[in-house]
Specification:
The protein is 62% helix and 5% strand. It has 77 residues and is mainly alpha-helical. Strands 1-2 form a two-stranded antiparallel ribbon. It is found in: Cytoplasm; Nucleus.
Length: 77
């Protein structure tokens, strides 16, 4: 059974290990993918590509689909 300084050191080591495990739990790959997917709100009507904002969507549409007419929601941007 540990006593004195050895006990304090082992408790500190265990607490540090526990805090590292908690930090890693909050940043899993699936959580990051879900958060990134929520940010992609604009979907191209032709190719179904997903974009985060209307400006990027407009640039995508002008570059990838130049022969098609611009959708109504992009004409004001």
């Amino acid at each position: 059974m540990a006593r004195g300084q050895q006990k304090i050191q082992s408790q500190a080591k265990a607490a540090e290990k526990l805090s590292k495990m908690k930090k890693q739990q909050g940043h899993s790959a699936t959580d990051q993918k879900k958060a990134a997917q929520k940010a992609l709100v604009h979907i191209c009507v032709i190719c179904k590509a997903q974009m985060p904002d209307p400006k990027t969507y407009k640039q995508h549409f002008e570059n990838k689909h130049p022969k098609n007419d611009l959708p109504e929601d992009l004409k004001t941007i």
